Amino acid sequence: MTLGELGEFALIGRITAGLGASGPVVLGVGDDCAVLRLAGDLAVSTDTMVENVHFRTDWSSAEDVGRKAVAACVADAEAMGAAPIGLVVSLAAPATTPTEWADGFAAGVRSECAAAGVQLVGGDTTSAAQIVITATVLADLAGQPAVTRAGARAGQVLAVVGRLGWAAAGVAVLGRGFRSPRAVVLAHRVPEVPYGQGRVAAEAGASAMIDVSDGLLADLAHIARASGVVLDVDTGAFEIAEPQKAVAAAIGGGDPLLFQLTGGDDHALVAAFDASSVPAGWRVIGRVLAGEPDVLVDGAPWAGAATGWRHFAK
Amino acid sequence: MTLGELGEFALIGRITAGLGASGPVVLGVGDDCAVLRLAGDLAVSTDTMVENVHFRTDWSSAEDVGRKAVAACVADAEAMGAAPIGLVVSLAAPATTPTEWADGFAAGVRSECAAAGVQLVGGDTTSAAQIVITATVLADLAGQPAVTRAGARAGQVLAVVGRLGWAAAGVAVLGRGFRSPRAVVLAHRVPEVPYGQGRVAAEAGASAMIDVSDGLLADLAHIARASGVVLDVDTGAFEIAEPQKAVAAAIGGGDPLLFQLTGGDDHALVAAFDASSVPAGWRVIGRVLAGEPDVLVDGAPWAGAATGWRHFAK
């Protein structure tokens, strides 16, 4: 059966079956709006994923796509130091899409929501020429100020939690027709977001934070500009994982460090801390210097093309 | 120039130029999340519009599409009795889209946000095969309970504010290649949402409310089911506007009342009130009866195909 045969309301029924409302969710799916009760300010962010731009249905299962849509969106709330509590998801898909795909997508959304500690509280479904998914996360700052990109101070250190360059290594092999190393392929399909670490960083006194969606150097440039500082990344602090070495060797002897410096979509969190305040599990990878906003690698301008991922780019 | 030549970050810059943060907006666009300060519970809803499903670029200008995306979404917050304060918008569009279209879209989003009293606080842009827009509204219940679909009680009256069946009449003429009557064509291009009337209804004691997006009878069926009541619409209370009569006559002598009973996309608000509590400007169009959930027209089951608009339908 296809979504066209199933119909919109039946699809919504399948996606939302059994969803309740508890904790901060006063009213869940099924009315004109959901209603959430927050303890502090609301942090909100929205993220769109498009078939054949952000994912391919032959590389990623429906469940992978659902999980990734949630993970990428929730990471933005983590990056503010907020506690994500609710999510709304819009699914636009061709009427010819098999209902099994929508069921798998819904299962992925729900399992990743559970992993992230958020409740699915609403959404929209419609037909479209290709699959387009937009997720919006609602997060509670619970009386604390948001950790923006703007607070990094000279003398602090940069620290990261989560993975760098795994998803990019996965795309590199998938793009060449391979399905291994499996670890990097899985990393492209579903990022391992360090859920809960945004609050940990905020409570430890992080002065600026971002999630690495475009690539470490590209995202650090946002902090450098917003904070008016120089960020100096120490490549000696990076451990290159075996699968990344294997991929770099297999695709022509490139430097596997490139994946870590420029690869996006793993949604690690990177933040500035006083050196004495780095939380357990975070790795120091650089430092904050005074000067015209810039990102350096080992004290020097980086020679590579630190562009990160661009949409609409040729 | 096209969006592909302009690039993602330049596009975002054009869309968000000059946007600030004031009132309930603690932090506007430009970080991982926006931050809003609410006085009460959060009401949230998301709405997706797809090119050639919800709009056609030869029928609607870019500004129309931007305005409609905001209006349709904000109407859901009005229907809860909440005060809309913020909006995030995702724009997926082909790289070949002229930048003028995106500029017009952004202008429409911003002008309708101003009309609705909400601030644009974030969004996402990406490339896609067709234009897909998702808007998510953030609204403040300000210490009041939400007006759901579930509270209508036998003995109350049904009242409506805003237009019924104007957009449907517009689609009827546009679909036949005409551009007039201009009033109904304009109504299809940009709905006239009765902004502020959701709060008015809540303060007047509305017990159940919905915005008419699928068609009056279809949307009343949601209230009937959620409230466990019968809703009886009195067609004697409807005034058929001249342009609707003209369209019905032009397309073959159909009953213009059909537009009002089944036409969607005008986003009128319909609510149940005690008869003595109907706010000024609202028109009584029926009553709430005890019984198995149902919607009647003049006391009888309606013979027409009260289906409303369905996505994925053949």
Task: Describe the protein in words.
The structure is a homodimer of 314-residue chains. Chain A is of the alpha+beta class. The first copy, chain A, folds into two domains: 7-140, PurM-like, N-terminal domain (60s Ribosomal Protein L30, Chain: A, 2-Layer Sandwich); 157-301, PurM-like C-terminal domain (Phosphoribosyl-aminoimidazole Synthetase, Chain A, domain 2, Alpha-Beta Complex). Chain A is built from ten helices and 13 strands. A seven-stranded mixed beta sheet of chain A has the order 8-10-7-11-9-12-13. In chain A, helix 4 links the parallel strand 4 and strand 5 (119-127). The radius of gyration of chain A is 20 Å and the shape is globular. Chains A and B meet through helix 1, helix 2, strand 2, strand 3 and strand 4 of A and helix 1, helix 2, strand 2, strand 3 and strand 4 of B.
